[in-house]
Amino acid sequence: MSRVGRLVVIEGLDGSGKRTLTEALTKALHNLGKSVATRAFPRYGESVHADLVREALHGGHGDLAASVHGMAVLYALDRRGAADAIVDDLKLHDIVLLDRYVASNAAYGAARLHQDARGEFVEWVRELEVTRFGLPLPDTQILLRVRPEVAAERAARRAQSEVDRAKDAFESDDDLQIRCARVYDQLAADGWLSPWQVVDGTAGFDAAELAAGLVHPG
């Protein structure tokens, strides 16, 4: 069976509202009669690589979190472990929604290294995840754009209200979030890996309109 579905990725800073948008889009797509599969990365609790990431971001495994490339490889291996499942989802569903994907690795790693979207790290991520690991390319990527200070405030509130969502080393680094936002903007402007759509996550979004655009891309 060949691929029939469209792979849609939602990207954005920690605290931008990606989970909320994923849930709203899923409901809106169901209302349009479309079948939807959703996945989120990192796959904490499902993948040993994702769990190593979480442990490192909370101070475990010595100096692992300090290694930009080491952490990026773990993120990439987490997605590689899900590649077959994503391909299967695309055979069975109209839309496959991913909360974070390859661009997240590119954006955060480049920001940590003080590079932009056209730097060596972003190209290295593409080579690793797409060329070497063979991850399916997205059909479209949605950048849920919010001001870094707004995302930081939301992440802080989430950490206080959800016992399993304590802020990690990346979320606690305000300067990193600012640099990451810039890289995301550049990736979207360049159409990295696929066309991008920028959504204002501060002002709110119309999930029904977004869903219609995914079903009938113009």
From TrEMBL:
<keyword id="KW-0547">Nucleotide-binding</keyword>
<keyword id="KW-0067">ATP-binding</keyword>
<keyword id="KW-0418">Kinase</keyword>
<protein>
    <recommendedName>
        <fullName>Thymidylate kinase</fullName>
        <ecNumber>2.7.4.9</ecNumber>
    </recommendedName>
</protein>
<dbReference type="InterPro" id="IPR039430">
    <property type="entry name" value="Thymidylate_kin-like_dom"/>
</dbReference>
<comment type="similarity">
    <text>Belongs to the thymidylate kinase family.</text>
</comment>
<keyword id="KW-0808">Transferase</keyword>
<dbReference type="Pfam" id="PF02223">
    <property type="entry name" value="Thymidylate_kin"/>
</dbReference>
<dbReference type="GO" id="GO:0005829">
    <property type="term" value="C:cytosol"/>
</dbReference>
<comment type="function">
    <text>Phosphorylation of dTMP to form dTDP in both de novo and salvage pathways of dTTP synthesis.</text>
</comment>
<dbReference type="GO" id="GO:0005524">
    <property type="term" value="F:ATP binding"/>
</dbReference>
<dbReference type="InterPro" id="IPR018094">
    <property type="entry name" value="Thymidylate_kinase"/>
</dbReference>
<dbReference type="GO" id="GO:0006227">
    <property type="term" value="P:dUDP biosynthetic process"/>
</dbReference>
<feature type="domain" description="Thymidylate kinase-like">
    <location>
        <begin position="10"/>
        <end position="192"/>
    </location>
</feature>
<dbReference type="GO" id="GO:0004798">
    <property type="term" value="F:dTMP kinase activity"/>
</dbReference>
<keyword id="KW-0545">Nucleotide biosynthesis</keyword>
<dbReference type="InterPro" id="IPR027417">
    <property type="entry name" value="P-loop_NTPase"/>
</dbReference>
<dbReference type="GO" id="GO:0006235">
    <property type="term" value="P:dTTP biosynthetic process"/>
</dbReference>
<dbReference type="GO" id="GO:0006233">
    <property type="term" value="P:dTDP biosynthetic process"/>
</dbReference>
